[in-house]
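ugh finaly. both done.
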Amino acid sequence: QSQSGLGQRWLSYPRGRGLGGTSLINALIYSRGFREDWDRMPEGWQSNDLASTFESLEEKLNLTTVAPGPFGLSVIAAAKSLGVSKGGADHWEHSGIMDGARAAVDARTGRRADVYRAFGADRGNVVLIR
């Protein structure tokens, strides 16, 4: 349906329908978000408050870094030619060129790490009801 706020264009907003929800269809890119954004949140929700929680989640997800493919390499080359600097290794750093993206792929199995597999399956804490 066209939207007036989008100049009468429509926006595709796919959602996952399965155990794990939209994490089943996402781009497999993992990001903590920007430190500056978290630091605008109330006390208890700022980046330093959440760092250990993110580390715990990242350990459970067992994330791996995925090397860019041909298209990604072209984007990196174009960015370098424009003088864009290399990004940092800090998990809060999102500026500059990254050599690879932290992907929600389990490094142990090579399978996508959706929410259900990471936090529900085989743990006995989820009961499925038909």
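ok and the 2nd:
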Amino acid sequence: VLNYALDVPGYGWRYMVGFGAVAPMGTLLMLLLPQLLESPRWTMLQGQREQAEADLRLLVGHDEAREMLQEWGRPVPLCTWAEVLSPKGTWRRQSLRVAVFIMALSLTGGIGTTTVYMGTIFATDVNLHEAAKMTSIVGGMRIVVQTVSSFVLVD
């Protein structure tokens, strides 16, 4: 039945593969999701310290769990947005400025739009198979270069 409903020339097989992937992923998610632990920090904030400690011991070991619970028990000082946006310390202010600059450059530089339409741009010069390969390579290189440069500039 789905085969006839999704019979779009040139694209039908993609829809069928997509529907074929959804059921196993959904089943896997339904089987594994109940096995996940709640966040130990959230459990502790809900007043269930013993359960949080048991979950932490399971995840990180006895000694580290005890240290984490002691740290979580300390009061957290509140701060204002002004303190967040103008942190104390020269290196923090510089890191914040560089991070905002990188974000603004990424958003206004057009690299995101170019990456989205890269396949169409390449397809005008080469066949679709080569365009897809070039899009993957150039898109991956862009992500690596942007990530590495962000780490270098912010740190």
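summary for the 2nd one i guess: DSSP finds ten helices and no strands in the chain.
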